[in-house]
């Protein structure tokens, strides 16, 4: 009896209101110890073609440098494409006025049927009680500084918020895969 081949982990798309910036993608990829794929930032790209390529390729973090709700004409929006392809997605929300934009973008992704792993706050102070009060699936918080600046091994999360975020993301990933 041959063992079943190991399934490749699907790519994880990282999205944010207005699009993900390269520094934010690098910080999150390093904290989660995920290889970072090339950012998708060209509005002329067909979302279905890009997502088909992700399905064929390896895993890793794929930053979407475009707003997921922006209308792309006949292609619809990235949110619609992510939902149609059942692409696991993580929503990065910059600190400042969190509850409103976070809730709006979560609703946009939910309406499109996107399998959202959760939300991550980038920068600012982390108020766990306030985030729980939002009623949103927050996974945690990251500072704007990349790990490795204090002699840490690059790509390995060693600070408490990054470790907690990585643990929460792995738990949600398992839940999503097993569902």
Description:
There is one protein chain. This protein has 179 residues and is α/β, with parallel strands linked by helices. It has one domain (11-178): 3-Layer(aba) Sandwich (Rossmann fold), CATH 3.40.50. Helix content is 37%, strand content 15%. The protein has six helices and five strands. A five-stranded parallel beta sheet has the order 2-1-3-4-5, with helices on both faces. The longest helix has 19 residues, at 160-178. The chain starts with 10 loop residues before the first strand and ends with a helix. Mean pLDDT is 84; it is low at 1-7 and 146-157.
Task: Please describe the structure with a list of short key phrases separated by commas or semicolons.
37% helix, 179 residues, Rossmann fold, globular
What portion of the residues fall into strands of 2 or more residues?
15-25%
* Uncertain ranges: 1-7, 146-157
- By CATH, the architecture is named 3-Layer(aba) Sandwich
In CATH terms, the superfamily is P-loop containing nucleotide triphosphate hydrolases
Largest pleated sheet? 5 strands, parallel
CATH class: Alpha Beta
Mean pLDDT: 84
User: How many DSSP-defined strands?
Assistant: 5
- Compute the separation of the termini in Å: 27 Å
Please write the string of helix (H) and strand (E) elements.
EHHEHEHEHEH
Q: What shape does the CA trace take? A: globular
Determine the CATH topology. Rossmann fold
């Amino acid at each position: 009896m041959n063992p079943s081949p190991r399934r490749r982990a699907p790519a994880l798309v990282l999205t944010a209101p207005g699009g993900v910036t390269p520094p934010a993608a690098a910080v999150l990829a390093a904290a989660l110890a995920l290889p970072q794929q090339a950012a998708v930032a060209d509005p002329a790209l067909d979302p279905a073609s890009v997502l088909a390529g992700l399905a064929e390729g390896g895993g890793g973090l794929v930053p979407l440098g475009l707003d997921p709700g922006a209308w792309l004409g006949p292609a619809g929006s990235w949110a619609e494409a992510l939902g149609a392809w059942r692409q696991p997605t993580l929503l990065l929300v910059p600190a400042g006025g969190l509850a409103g934009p976070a809730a709006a973008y979560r609703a946009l992704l939910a309406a499109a049927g996107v399998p959202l792993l959760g939300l991550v706050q980038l920068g600012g102070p982390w108020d766990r009680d306030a985030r729980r009060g939002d009623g949103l699936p927050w996974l945690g918080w990251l500072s704007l500084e990349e790990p490795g600046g204090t002699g840490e091994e690059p790509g390995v999360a060693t600070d408490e918020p990054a470790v907690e975020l990585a643990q929460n993301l792995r738990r949600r990933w398992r839940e999503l895969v097993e569902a």
